[in-house]
Write a structure and sequence with these properties.
By secondary structure, the chain is α/β, with parallel strands linked by helices. It is about 45% helix and about 15% strand. It contains nine helices and seven strands; from the N terminus they run E-H-E-H-E-H-E-H-E-H-H-E-H-H-H-E. Helix 1 links the parallel strand 1 and strand 2. Helix 1 packs across helix 9, helix 3 runs parallel beside helix 4 and helix 4 runs parallel beside helix 6.
Length: about 260
């Protein structure tokens, strides 16, 4: 299927690892030019080189998005290099375990900056080009905003904000024909997730207790499945979809856990 995104400049924050890398790879395979933003220059280059070895074109810019100034500077640099941009995927973030009982003000505010403030700032700075091109915004969010997780107030609140901003921006930007959607992720097997599983005494048993709760196929979602959904939502083929929170999670959030 031709998604009609060939040569489109699509920014992907946190695009060198995990879910972001999965999205970036699929976009490149579909002929878009993904431009990743990440804070680790070595990781960025390694991923760009890996994609090049597969015959895929990806570019990267290095910036620490937990601070406001780099959010503006990196978008300006991308537009200066390419002349425009057509879409943006807000993905960068970290589940930083800033809880309620043992958390603090500084940690909570820092969690917001790591997980949602840059969503706002990147889009705000990219908005002139998005308006010009009737572009697309895709926010990556987490089930934690809906299900809770425990001991992660900062991350949960930030994901609630991601969901709210998706609906708010969809309304505000209707007049520009800019579509805004979110993908809600539940249990996705990324390198970071695998590292967490490996901290348990019996990692294979721990992983099975999780996958047994995922209704469709009793397995984790793959980054390619996230990438495929993202590419569709960023393409003109989803031209009448906006303001949606789409769960790519094998039914984890909404289907009855009693299903056998």
């Amino acid at each position: 299927m031709d998604l009609k995104i060939k040569d489109k400049i699509i920014v992907v924050s946190g695009g060198a690892r995990g879910i972001g890398a999965g999205i970036t790879k699929i976009l490149a395979q579909e002929g878009a030019l993904p431009v990743i933003i990440g804070k680790d220059e070595v990781d960025n280059k390694a991923f760009v080189d890996k994609m090049a070895s597969l015959g895929l074109k990806v570019d990267s810019f290095t910036a620490d998005l937990s601070h406001p100034a780099p959010c503006k500077q990196v978008i300006e640099a991308i537009v200066e290099k390419y002349g425009t941009l057509h879409g943006i995927v807000n993905n960068a973030g970290v589940n930083d375990n800033i809880g309620l009982q043992y958390g603090n003000y500084g940690g909570f505010v820092a969690s917001y900056h790591k997980n949602v403030v840059h969503y706002y700032l990147l889009v705000q700075n990219a908005l002139p080009e998005l308006i010009k091109n009737e572009g697309v915004i895709l926010n990556i969010s987490s089930k934690v905003a809906e299900t809770g997780q425990g001991d992660t107030s900062g991350y949960a609140a930030a994901n609630g904000a991601r969901n709210a901003l998706t609906r708010e921006w969809a309304v505000e930007l209707l007049k520009y024909n800019i579509r805004v959607n979110a993908l809600i992720i539940s249990e996705c097997l990324t390198p970071l997730y695998e590292s967490w599983i490996d901290t348990f005494e019996k990692p294979e048993e721990k992983l099975k207790t999780i996958t047994d709760r995922i209704p469709l196929g009793k397995r984790m979602t793959t980054v390619d499945e996230i990438g495929n959904s993202a590419a569709f939502l960023l393409s003109p083929l989803s031209s009448h979809t906006t303001g949606q929170l789409i769960h790519v999670d094998g039914g984890y959030v909404h289907l009855d856990r009693a299903i056998k």
